[in-house]
Each structure stands twice: as structure tokens, then as C-alpha cells.
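Re-run with default settings, no changes from the original entry. Doing this only to confirm the output is reproducible before filing.
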Amino acid sequence: MRAAVTSGVEAIAVVDRDEAAGPGPGEVVVAPEAVGICGSDYHFFLGELSDAAGGSQFPRIQGHEVGARIVAVGPGCREQLQPGVRVAIWPLQACGDCYPCSVGRPNTCDNFRLIGIHEDGGLQQRLVTGQDQVFPIDVEQPAVAALVEPLSIAVRAVVRARLEEGERAVIFGAGPIGQCIALAAIDLGADVLLVDPQERRLELARELGVAETVPWTDAGTVIEAVRAWSGPSGPPVGFDATGAPAAVRAMVDVLASAGRAVQVGMSGHEVALRIGSLTEKELDLLGVSCCDHAEFGRATRLAERRAAQLQRLVSHEFPLERAPEAIRFAIDNPTEVMKVVIVGE
């Protein structure tokens, strides 16, 4: 079996590995068809993944955005899981014992495990996983199945935001996660404005159905443009998908009183906020982690409805044998890349 193994910082090679064992009770063996590469993969590869996110544990087969075909099914699996069925893989496993798990929020488990980070992931020809991680999906393109995982983050974001039909929301960042948040919001019937410094990303957003876009120049100009669109009080909901301090501050500053600021973008930066923005406007400041089981199912159905739009997010494809080149290309060409997908056999 061929697999792309990250053996250390910036050290990855495609090698022969032992074939995956047959599935045990409640397990399935899948053949990954498409694996998306995202920012957390970059951080793992560069040895920059924070301890809170699991750190960079070598050696590891990366890849947590996985679309696959079922190859074999172990005893005790649900009937709909059959060989040949295309699936999306929910990569998160929670411990069930910590405080977040005890209050019904296992997506923020203190002891979570994620395939591609804590356990071997999708950059291999065969992967064994539990049946609860496997979601059948009716789409033609394997890459769309892989994109269910980033789309599930967007679903979690709109759930946290309590976004409703007819509400207006501003999204900072038109990378893959920002585009997915826009799709999830539009699917709910919300009105969306997307902000990004790259015109080519804003153009793609308009092609995907975003009615309003604003180029990022400086915070003051962007806030003025957003309020011209939403009304002088500002929109009720804001999402940051950048992790950039200036964008986070602009999101908080532009929101209407009683608004919801939803932080989705990850970074190690610190942000200077005017405390009065939170108290005077009584904002909800909400963080977003991974999704839960039900939200991943919801993202799967959303991907089926929006398959053509999701496929447009794939900017580059590489075969598994060129996985090392794919990861380096994605890291070295951030303005050219929207979503790199590594395709299997």
C-alpha cells in the first residue's frame, strides 16, 4: 500500500506501507479518493501546530479532509454502509468523559483525536475507521466529498451564530473556509457580504452566489462600506475566517448592538479590542471549533445541494505520488491556491 508519510518537520515521502488490516466489528475499510489540504496541514508539516491543537506528532500520514469509497465492512455496521458507496469522513473522535463531552459539546473535547493529526489520515490507499465516522454522500465528484469537512466548519459557524433567514452577515476572508461560510449562510437564506484583499477570491465568491463583496484596503474604509450595505447600525452577524488581528478588530467594530461576532479563523496572534465595544453593544463573542456528528451530517446534505459550487473551490489537483509536491506548492503559493486536493487511485 502506498502512503505519504510525514516523518519530521518538512520531511514527507510517498512510501510502501503494510496493507490496512481487515475491518473489525463496527469498522469499515475505505479507499481515499480525494484528500483536501488545509492550513492545519501546513502547520503540522512545518512543525508549527500548537499543543492545544495536538502538536506535530511524527511520523504521521496526514489528511483529515477525506472523500472515499467503502472497500470492506466489518460486522455490526449499519446496513447503508456497503462496498462501493462513496462517503465523507468525519475526522473527530471525542473521549466522552471530559467537561465539554459531559455538557453535550464533544466537538470541543479536551482529549479529542483527529485523523491526520493524532492518528493516520487519508493520504494512503486504504484507511480503517469506525462506522460513526462515515457518512454516505450522493455526489459525482470525490473532491466534493472531501470538502464536506471544511464545509462542516461553516455549518458549525452558522449554528454558533444563530444565523437566520433574512439576516445580514459580513464575512472577513474569502479563502476556503470563508467561501464555505458564505455558501452555508446563503443556503439558509441570509444576505452575505464578503471581504478579502484578493480580487480573484472575491470574483470567485460572486460566481458562487455572493451578492456583495468589498476589497480589504484598511479597516476604516471597509467598515464604512459594510455599513453602507447593512445600514448605519451595522450587520447583526460577523464571521472572521482569517485570524488576522486587523480583520478581527474590524468585525467587532462594525457589528450592530446585540450582534454576534463569530471567530472561525485560527492563528497565534493577539488582538487589541476596545473593551467598550463588547459592553456598550453587549456583543456575543463566539469561537468555533470542529463540528459535532449531527452537524457533519448536515454538512453532507449541504454538499449534495451545493456540489457544483463546492467543486469550484478546487484550484489544483495532484496524484498521491506527488503529495510532497502538493503540500509544498500549497504553502509556497498562497495567492494562487484556493484548495489543493490530492486524488487517489
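The two ends are 11 Å apart (CA to CA). The first helix runs from residue 39 to 45.
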